[in-house]
Design a protein that fits this description.
- Helix 2 (about 50-60) packs across helix 6 and helix 3 (about 75-95) packs across helix 4 (about 100-105).
- The chain has seven helices and seven strands.
- The mean pLDDT is about 95.
- By secondary structure, the chain is of the alpha+beta class.
- The strands form two sheets. The protein has a five-stranded mixed sheet, sandwiched between helices. Strands 1-3 form a two-stranded antiparallel ribbon.
- The longest helix is centred in the middle third of the chain and has 18 residues, at about 75-95.
- The chain has helices spanning about 5-10, 50-60, 75-95, 100-105, 145-150, 160-175, 195-200; strands at about 20-25, 30, 45, 65-70, 125-130, 180, 190.
Length: about 210
C-alpha cells in the first residue's frame, strides 16, 4: 500500500495543463450531495476531464445505480485544517507514538498539503446511491477515519459485510475503468491527474497542480 506520505509521491514532477474547474451543480447527469458544501461552493468543483470520467463511470454502473458525489476541490487552508485537526486527534489518543508514526497514521486519512489530490481539482469523494438518491451500504460512512472504523474504511477491508464489499467492487470497477485511481485507505476517494495518480499509472508528470 502506497501512502500519500511516501517520498515517491512528492517526487513526481508537477505540471498543470490548465484544464478549467467545472461546477458539478451545472452537470445535471451527476448527483451532488451537499454534506460537504461550503459558502464559496468550492466543494462542487473538479477539472473538466474528471467530470468526463465520472460520467463514463456512471454509464458503466448496473441499472438502477448512480454515483453520489460528496466533495471535489478543497482549498489549501481547508486541507491544512483537516490534516492538523486529525493529527491532533491521534496525538491525544496515542501519546506514545513517535512523530514519524503520528505523521504516517495521519496520512492514512488526510493528505499532506504539499501533495493533496483534492487541492488540484483532480480528486473527488463519492459513494453509490439508487436513482432516488438512497445511499447504498458501503461498509462505513464516507470520511470514516481508520481510527474510528478499525480500518474498515480501507477499500479492501475484509471486516465489512458481503453486500458492502460487493458495492465497493461495483463502484471501483466503474471508476477504474474510467481511468481514476483510488487511495486504498479511503474507499470513497478517487482521483485523476494528480501526483498519486501519476505515480500509480506510471505517468511522467501530473496533469494538475494545486489550484
Amino acid at each position: 500500500m502506497i501512502l500519500l506520505c511516501d517520498p515517491r509521491v512528492a517526487a513526481v514532477r508537477g505540471v498543470d495543463d490548465g484544464e478549467p474547474l467545472v461546477d458539478l451543480r451545472e452537470v445535471p447527469e451527476l448527483r451532488l450531495d451537499a454534506r460537504a458544501a461550503d459558502p464559496a461552493g468550492t466543494y462542487a468543483r473538479v477539472r473538466r476531464p474528471v467530470v468526463d470520467r465520472l460520467l463514463a463511470a456512471q454509464r458503466a454502473l448496473p441499472d438502477g445505480l448512480r454515483l453520489l458525489l460528496v466533495e471535489g476541490y478543497r482549498p489549501y487552508q481547508a486541507q491544512l485544517d483537516i490534516f492538523t485537526g486529525y493529527q491532533e486527534e491521534l496525538r491525544r489518543a496515542h501519546p506514545d507514538w513517535s512523530p514519524e508514526r503520528l505523521y504516517r497514521e495521519t496520512t492514512k486519512f488526510v493528505s499532506p498539503v504539499e501533495v493533496a489530490p483534492h487541492s488540484t481539482g483532480g480528486a473527488v469523494d463519492l459513494t453509490l446511491c439508487t436513482v432516488d438518491g438512497v445511499e447504498l451500504d458501503m461498509g462505513t460512512a464516507v470520511d470514516a477515519t481508520p481510527e474510528a472504523s478499525d480500518n474498515a474504511c480501507f477499500t479492501a477491508a475484509s471486516s465489512i459485510g458481503a453486500e458492502a464489499r460487493r458495492h465497493r467492487q461495483i463502484m471501483a470497477a466503474a471508476l477504474r475503468g474510467a481511468g481514476l485511481v483510488n487511495y486504498p485507505t479511503e474507499w470513497w476517494h478517487w482521483s485523476y491527474g494528480d501526483r498519486y495518480w501519476a505515480l500509480l499509472t506510471g505517468a511522467p508528470h501530473t496533469r494538475y497542480g494545486p489550484v
